[in-house]
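Researcher: Quick one. two chains, 420 residues in total.
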Amino acid sequence: MSRNIALSGLFTALTIAGAQITIPLGPVPFTLQLLFVIMSGQILGAKWGFYSQASYVFLGAMGLPVFAGMKGGLAHIIGPTGGYILSFPLAALISGLSRQDFKNMLLLSILSIGVVYACGSAWLTIYTKSFVKSIMAGVLPFIWVDLLKTAGASYVSSRLLKAFPKLLPEKSDGSA
Amino acid sequence: MNPVIGRYVPAESVIHSLDPRCKLVCLVAVTSAVLFVKGISGYLIPGIFIATAMVLSRVNLLTYLKGIKSIIFLVIFAAAFQYFYAGIYGAIYIFLRLFLVLLAAEVFTFTTQPTVIAFALEDILRVFGVPKAKAQEFSMIMSIALRFAPIMVEEAQRIMKAQISRGAPIDCGKISDRIKALSSVTIPLMASAIRKAEELSLAMEARMYVPGMPRSRYRQMVWQLKDTAALAAAATVLTLTILI
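Model:
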């Protein structure tokens, strides 16, 4: 139990760190944030992944500079890109539903990226007034890199879960 | 890339001694006020409030500017971007908005210790009807996150440099190579996080941390008259900005 709390806190910290680290990769700034969102679900399981990302959103909402580019505050959640941030707990929850093998993890993480895009674009549409425009601005430039991220996350998580078998719940514990 | 979070500046001041819950609610109120501002002159009211708080906090004003040095470039970039859509007026408008929000966040983080912030968040969650045990778990997760965020940023940069020095093509080469090289950063980073969590949970259990059990606090938060005054001032700022 206390291990789950400690791990959730560290994954929140990793998500904060991931939002600050940009890697030069072509024209689109590449951050590790979404990678950690998916991995928090995969490593912690659905429930604790959700808690970890919910506390991330909550810290940001309260004005601490934890979002990309060291921004924070309710303004960013209400703002045009808020839908993406709000979908993080949901994305972690979905990608943590099954942690059996690489294939399951990959499928679920692709699904969770889809949820992030759906929430984000729907939210952005309030501002752009056009769903097509939102998809053009918020999905198309990122989709390839993000799909690679899901593959990367699932690969790394499946290897980590093998290296640290303690992370997986025992059969009697249904908290996955 | 110096995260402002968790950077507490110790001093003896009115702002430091305010109840953290009060400061948190004020921060939310003032940040929303900045969001509601319609014209440039409207920034005057929240601006004065934030400036007063900065002076009262007895933190060197240069420290405030240093804290946002790394992102001020981003702010200017956003303003320049706005310039092409809405002219110089729009650029100043967006610059002031981001600048004030950042300063307000800094006043809070400079004058409040991270652990205390987490306790304040716990109380706020309780107000929203989250049961006590859940709220305490959340506050524990958040205080761990706040404590470890700067450490994880440092760790990530250290691992990245180490892998580059071993020849990992992270900052050059083909895109497919770079993505492969990225797993040489994420795996050690994750492994270190998992190991840290393992040690941390052992330390917590050794100190009799039992999730869901009632816990007492070392420092009790006491709501004083000055907290009410600060809250009233923040509420006035918010109403005035919405009305104008």
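The radius of gyration of chain B is 21 Å.
Researcher: Thanks, that's what I needed.
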